[in-house]
Amino acid sequence: MKGQQPQWRHISDLPVFTELVDGMLDSAVEQLATLRECEHRPSVLDDHTLNLFIVLHTEQRDDHWLYEQQFARWKRGTLSDSQTSRNSWPISASVVI
Fold it and tell me: Domain span at residue 32?
């Protein structure tokens, strides 16, 4: 996303963001479990695999500001009565690491 202007989304896209963030969380938790299995067996992961992992997660970390800004924009916005009373937003996942 470097160098590009973000395309801010309407609040109606919240379910898409929720699904996206949930998927990223599930993937990160899965990757953490895999890395913890390898913690005491460092020879299992070669340098190339580790470098790919580092690049991927560094890029994801560097893009977190986009989600933070999008959620902050939604929070500052005014919602209609139907949006504020909506109980069907797909909210999930609490993780203890």
Answer: 14-74
